[in-house]
Sequence to fold (96 residues):
Amino acid sequence: MAKARDPDLAPAIRALISAQGMLEVHVTPNARHCALSLPPPGDPPVLTIRTTATPQDGKANQEVIRLVAAALGIAKGGVVLARGATARRKLLKVLQ
Fold:
């Protein structure tokens, strides 16, 4: 697991983004700490995100967007939730 501000993480996350700018993530809310995990080689290209935020009122979704944007070094507005607002498996659109 890596911290969101790990500079080596950005290229690896960018490699998971599809040609259409979509990034699939699996979210675990209410975790002890926030962390991003890359998929093992050979597994589907899904980024695993652990967040301390609760899934109430969209707080976990906001935190997921913030973590991904920070890891990529872009503004929060550059990451949009495309699908999965209430699911653990989400699809993010990376605009930048």
Remarks:
- The chain has a mean pLDDT of 92.
- Helices lie at 9-16, 59-72.
- The chain has one domain: 9-94.
